[in-house]
Each structure stands twice: as C-alpha cells, then as structure tokens.
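Feature request, filed as a ticket because there's no other form

It would be nice if the structure record came with a short human-readable summary line next to the tokens. Right now we just get the raw output. Example of a typical job, pasted below so the devs can see what we mean:
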Amino acid sequence: MDDTDLSGSSGQRLVADERRQQIRDLLRRQSIASLSEVMQVTRASEATVRRDLSLLERGGFLARTRGGARAVRQHTTLEEEFEIRQGRDRREKRLIGQLAAELLTDGTTLFLTDGTTAYALAQCIVHRHLTVITSALNIAQLLAGCAGIEVIVIGGRLRATSFGTTGPLSVDAISVLRADMAFIAADGITLAGGVRAHSIDDAAVARAMSDSARQTVVLASPAKIGLDARMRVVDWQQVDMLVTTPPPGEFADGLKERGVRLVVAT
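Raw output as currently delivered:
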C-alpha cells in the first residue's frame, strides 16, 4: 500500500502529514496508544501505521513500544527543541558543514536557510570573509560578531516552531537580492520528488533563494535521504550539488544521471 489511505466511508484521501499529525494529537491526549488505537484513529492499515510510527520516532515525536507508541516529553522553548534536533546525526551534520564550507571562497555571497544542518555550516565559517544572507535568526546571531562576515537577515513572519522567517515578506526580500550560492537544508530528498520540505512557507523561502543564486547546493543528513516530505522545493535540474554522507549506490547513480554533483562527507 502507498503512503496514502482512504479515510473512512467518505472516501477522502488522508495525506501522510495529516495522518501523522493525528497520531501526535492522540498521544498528546492519552500519552500512550496501542497499534489498534492508532489504526482506528487514522483509518490506515497496520503496515502504514507502523511506517508512520517509525518516521515519527526518528523525528523525536514519540517512542515506539512493543504494542504501539508513547509520547515523549514535550519541550517548551525553541532552544530546547533545536538542541534535540541538532543532536540527531550530529557527527554527520558536522562533516557536511565542514565539507560545504570548503566549497566557499572568501568574498562569496551566499543564501543560507534555517535548520540544524545549515547551522552546522554556519559554525564552520565563523572565521571566513563572506556575505551571508539568511532567514535563520540563530544563524544571524552566531555570525553577527564575526569580523569577516557581513550578515543580512531576511525579514518576515517568525515560525513558531523554528528560528526561521517565512511568508511573502521573506520571499519578496529574497527576490531583490542576488547571491553566488544558495545552501538549502532539506527536510527530505528523493530521486523522483527532488528536494522536499515539511512546511509550505519554508519551501517557498528556499525556492526563492535558489532562484536568486547562481548555484544551488543542497545539504542533507543521512536521515533525509529517501524521505518524501510534503512540499517540493526544487527539482534536481535546479540543483548543482548535494552535500551528504555516503548515499545508497542507486541514489548516487540517479543523481549522476540528473547532472547533480555529489559531494560526500566521510
């Protein structure tokens, strides 16, 4: 069965993100739920529910149990949640950040999205001479005191779940700027679906950065490979390079066929 199931007798399709949100809402209400309870709420098959639970566990939203799932402690600040996400694949993100930094020459102007992998890149350029245009307030704060870096912050609506600015104001501001390179931290990448984002607004910001840059570089930690997040950011035809850890062989071959340079951190 694919990632979409029929929802009850209405025949309306329940997209994966909505289904997984139902699971999270269920666990907020009762802290623990059996597999059968989750299936009843989502009207999805056992195989689909198991796949959803695995993805949500990888995202830190729940913990699997033998018969279902339980809620994990919810954090109340952006800093705490960012630290949790930053801790996942920490070594790989650091390697990706270091390798991406090596692609930059002094004097480069770059766009940089928000996200933990983008933040890892920012940590690796603090002693460089660059112009950084970013939608991430925490990245701007990190780089603001660096003597060699000029920081331009993209305004807009601050998302409640991240340090990133989004919305029409952000997209409009990006559209009048130009950069040598756009570094986009992906929420998911697939050969068929291209570069993906969970948020519609985040996708629009990243797409605008790509459109306003001479080169587009995608940053993706290993957990993002094969993850088909809800929104397309850009197709592979618009991507010049992907910086990641060693991907599966068929994925690397597919990128080569699409003309994307694979830069591998080991």
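Something like this underneath would help us a lot:
The chain has two domains: 5-71, 82-264.
Residues 16-30 form the longest helix (15 residues).
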